[in-house]
Design a protein that fits this description.
135 residues, Helix Hairpins, two-stranded antiparallel ribbon, 5 helices, 2 strands, globular, binds zinc ion
Length: 135
């Protein structure tokens, strides 16, 4: 199977991360940064709700009717998000997700793991699980 331009882009991304990661090169720093960057993603989403208000969360118990098929459930189970991200919040969340991806790529570099292969394997797993995936 030939590599697409997206595949090459992803490998290049990991390479650029490797070149840029000089100050926090220790795996301890990288692990700590993964934790912090994940928290920053969550914080940006929460601030869209509590500070901006462009989205709200309608959290409640979701009912799973007996005998419902997986296909039925996908229409019945809600994200519990109401509204749409405004441009500012979208930009902030995208920036934080980028930061989280940066440190995941850095961890891959440190342990000599290909982020491209990880995504490929995950995609294959999802294809195998098909509709039975409960992730
Ligand atoms: Zn907003």
């Amino acid at each position: 199977m030939g590599k697409s331009i997206n595949d090459i882009f992803l490998e290049d991304f990991q390479g650029v991360v490797g070149e840029m990661l000089i100050r926090n090169r220790s795996i301890l720093d990288v692990l700590s940064k993964i934790q912090v960057s994940g928290g920053r993603v969550n914080r940006a989403v929460v601030k869209s709700v509590t500070h901006c208000g462009c989205i709200s969360i309608d959290g409640k118990k979701q009912a799973f009717p007996n005998g419902a098929s997986i296909n039925d459930l996908s229409g019945l189970v809600s994200t519990q998000v109401k509204g749409e991200l405004c441009p500012d919040c979208r930009q902030t969340i995208e920036k934080e997700i980028g930061g989280a991806l940066f440190y995941l790529a850095a961890l891959c570099n440190t342990l000599d793991i290909s982020l491209y292969d990880v995504i490929l394997k995950e995609k294959e797993t999802l294809a195998t699980l098909g509709n039975y995936s409960l992730r």
